[in-house]
């Protein structure tokens, strides 16, 4: 039997896109307390079913799929630019394809306007009208508003018209930054990318070791999540738990309680770290206290191998730092050479600790890859010292493997400026066998 909380979530999911909701409204309609309604609405927001917009309220939106993570909804744009919605609220769930700045005559502007665009413009009401007529939403900068006819057209076409106190350059920069960040996030593999559409094999806590052994024969796996009847994860059972137990022993008595789990939004790299560190072959995936799937070590390794072969769209800080460095092999050591750029510096003009860590980490990984063909994750990095290195100075990071095991490797990295030793660190790396 579903709880009141689940009933509220189902009610919200069934609401039409663009519908405005409130705690008081939900509590009255479903005859629940406002506290229960509030908690359910916050969970719905976490699931991407609704969004809260300042001076507008909470609105039902279309749940974004993983493939659309690089695109913003107009509702998100409102929050990014601290805007207010003048009209077309029912279109806030729509996706922003791209934006244009209307700094030209109307007849020239419309050549660049297509449905799904956002036109950024000042207090030019004729442009507002023309943009809407061509299927584009409108963002008015400088805190200006528009006339009633434009607002009426926006409502009729379900195209948002938004006002922001920021100037045109500022709002364009904010939106562009948000889109750029989405591109980088899109490249980060998450656990949700590995989940199968098929439900995982599970056992309930009241089943027996005999049931467990039968499931092992059916699936070929030896580790399964253990759930309560309401779907809540309460444990995990593996071969070692059932070893030597009678077939009628209840699973709840021998299972591993409070198991390590991840969420769909956990990065695959973090999941891999847990598996290696804890010696796990399988991780339950939990969303809002309910099991949504499992991932195996093989899933993680395959995903990391696949991701390494994919082209990158957005540049991270790591890309910016390492983009100026070149690797060579010298006397059984890897030599990573490059210049210190302004982006790598502290406010005082010397090499930052963060940039230094990125450089030594890359040098260490490349050195260990010369010995082991495997996926790797840095476990920890111990910095012994770092002398000031100025902008535009050339540096060389020499990495030498001092220990290499099946699951772990240790690499000594020294940083040189010319012949002068200016930094030293020890990097420990986890190895995920292919």
UniProtKB/TrEMBL annotation:
Keywords: CBS domain. It comes from the Bacteria. It holds the Pfam family DRTGG. InterPro entries: CBS_dom (IPR000644), CBS_dom_sf (IPR046342), Diverse_CBS-Domain (IPR051257), DRTGG (IPR010766), HotDog_dom_sf (IPR029069), Ser_kin/Pase_Hpr-like_N_sf (IPR028979), Thioestr_dom (IPR006683), WH-like_DNA-bd_sf (IPR036388). Residues 195-253, 255-310 form the CBS domain. Coiled coil: none annotated. This is CBS domain-containing protein.
């Amino acid at each position: 039997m579903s709880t009141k909380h689940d009933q509220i979530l189902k009610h919200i999911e069934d609401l039409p896109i663009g519908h405005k909701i409130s705690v008081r409204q939900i509590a009255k309609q479903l005859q629940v307390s406002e506290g229960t309604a509030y908690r359910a609405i916050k969970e719905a927001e976490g699931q991407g079913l609704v969004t809260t917009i300042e001076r507008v309220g909470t609105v039902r939106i279309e749940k974004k799929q993983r493939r659309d993570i690089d695109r913003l909804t107009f509702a998100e744009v409102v929050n990014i630019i601290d805007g207010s919605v003048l009209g077309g609220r029912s279109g806030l769930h729509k996706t922003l394809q791209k934006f244009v700045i209307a700094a030209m005559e109307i007849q020239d502007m419309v050549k660049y306007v297509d449905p799904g665009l956002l036109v950024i413009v000042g207090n030019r009401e004729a442009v507002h009208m023309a943009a809407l007529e061509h299927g584009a939403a409108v963002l008015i900068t400088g805190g200006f508003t528009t006339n009633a006819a434009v607002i009426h057209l926006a409502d009729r076409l379900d195209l948002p018209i938004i006002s922001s106190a920021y100037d045109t350059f500022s709002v364009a920069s904010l939106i562009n930054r948000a889109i750029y960040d989405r591109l980088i996030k899109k490249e980060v593999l998450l656990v949700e990318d590995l989940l199968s559409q098929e439900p995982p094999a599970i056992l309930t806590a009241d089943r027996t070791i005999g049931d467990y052994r039968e499931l092992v024969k059916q699936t070929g796996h030896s580790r399964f999540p253990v759930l309560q009847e309401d779907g809540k994860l309460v444990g995990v059972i593996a071969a070692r738990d059932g070893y030597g137990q009678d077939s009628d022993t209840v699973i709840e008595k021998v299972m591993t309680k409070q198991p390590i789990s991840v969420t769909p939004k956990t990065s695959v790299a973090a999941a891999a770290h847990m598996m290696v560190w804890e010696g796990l072959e399988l991780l339950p995936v939990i969303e809002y206290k309910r099991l949504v799937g499992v991932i195996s070590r093989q899933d993680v390794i395959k995903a990391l191998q696949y991701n390494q072969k994919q082209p990158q769209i957005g540049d991270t800080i790591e890309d910016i730092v390492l983009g100026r460095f070149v690797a060579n092999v010298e006397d059984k050591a890897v030599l990573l050479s490059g210049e210190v750029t302004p982006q790598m510096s502290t406010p005082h003009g010397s090499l930052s600790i963060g940039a230094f860590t990125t450089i030594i980490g890359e040098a260490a990984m490349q050195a260990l890859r010369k010995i082991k063909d495997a996926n790797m994750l840095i476990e920890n990095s111990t910095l012994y010292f770092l002398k000031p290195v100025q902008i535009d100075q050339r540096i060389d990071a020499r990495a030498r493997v001092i220990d290499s095991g099946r699951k772990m490797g240790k690499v000594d990295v020294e940083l040189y400026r010319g012949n002068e030793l200016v930094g030293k660190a020890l990097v420990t790396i986890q190895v995920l066998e292919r």
